[in-house]
Amino acid sequence: MKFETRDIEITDGEISFNIDSHTNNNMDCEDYIVIPGLINGHFHSYSSLAKGLMKEMALPDWCNDSEQGKVQQAFFEYLDEVISEEDFVHIAQKSYLDMMKHGVTFVSDSDPGEAPHLLHDAMNEIGIRAMIDVYEDIGDYVQQTDSNVSFGSHLLEEEDITNEELLKVKELKDQYNPIMMTHCLENEWRSNLVQANFGKSSISLYDELNLLDEKTVLFHTVYASNEDLDVISRNESSIVHCPLSNLDTGAGVAKVNEMLERNINVCLGTDFVHTNMWDLMKLTYYLLKINQPVNQYAAEDIFKMATVNGAKAYGVHEEIGQIQEGYKADFVFLKKSSLKPLIHQRNFSTYLHNLLFSEQTDLVQHVMINGNWVVKDRKVLTVNEEEINEKYSQIVNGFLNHLKQSTLHKQEH
């Protein structure tokens, strides 16, 4: 988390500090601060289409018999029964483009729809790095990992846990040993459910079957007890902190301070609807300030969660998340002029703090992934952004028409 002024050469998509003076393809970066690409550790690909639909409603109440719940029912019906697999991927692409233009170079997607292979192709077309959760189908995808996109599997949410299902997950773990992820103790409802059924937390159940290790990624863990956190720490598992989502759904505030005190690897995820990592990082910073000494946490802690910690969670920390010799050239070029006053002395710097709290309108100018430009002068270079936005608008209008027809049908009955 220290800033240096150095020359970098990119060779076969990797970082090198051994500069070849005869290189002609040079870029003057004097007007930029360059940081590693941001890592979004948890996201649902379809969720950008759901903006506002879940407002002020707790997760267990989604799709209830209220007017809002019926709109939500129509939304999921539209996703499951109306749109094509290709349209589902178009929704995801729209989200990835929004993320990429804000400096995200890696995303973990927990909702690949019915065609993860199409999502894989779309990610490669855009150029973003990714992890796709393919649940119990990991056997069909484990050999399809490429340089940008990997596949992982799933543990069980509390409402799905049975002894039989746990054993099935154990079999997948033993056979393929993939990254395994899940929403874990996300809210009080899920915590109470597993306690009522088993008399213990889901963390304890996973631990008993040796399902927790450095390849386990747990989303949320808002209702993890200190004993649960001790178990997570002992097994070197990672937690994806999702405060925007947790506050949206009334889940509460995760005990991130206690997690960090136990040296748990904590990274960040936008989860549902949100795609702007900078908003997430600012909220994370301020939540860590509640009832803590003002100097307890700094911007450096937040940027670690958004870069190297996310890379560690998904097992790619020796390739991305830092600007180091031999690492992949995943860079975000930030406009210095947006960050005044910039002070960088031996023992005091405003660089990273000012980055965290800068205006985001035009801060991110360029984004590079694997040594290739994916965003230049705030324009996406890999795909036709206008076409994707137009397709997304058509899908939105399709949902509005479906909602209207669904409402009319119910009124007639």
UniProtKB/TrEMBL annotation:
Per UniProt, the keywords (alphabetical) are:
Hydrolase
Q: Where is the Amidohydrolase-related domain?
A: 33-374
The record's GO molecular-function terms, alphabetically, read:
5'-methylthioadenosine deaminase activity; S-adenosylhomocysteine deaminase activity
Q: Which Enzyme Commission number(s) are listed?
A: 3.5.4.28, 3.5.4.31
Matching InterPro entries, A to Z?
Answer: Amidohydro-rel (IPR006680), Metal-dep_hydrolase_composite (IPR011059), Metal_Hydrolase (IPR032466), MTA/SAH_deaminase (IPR050287)
Matching Gene3D superfamilies: Metal-dependent hydrolases, Urease, subunit C, domain 1
This protein is called 5-methylthioadenosine/S-adenosylhomocysteine deaminase
Provide the leader sequence positions: none
| Entry keyword annotation includes Hydrolase | yes
Q: What's the top EC group for this one?
A: hydrolase
Pfam families referenced in this protein's UniProt entry, alphabetically: Amidohydro_1
- Organism, by scientific name, is Alkalibacillus filiformis
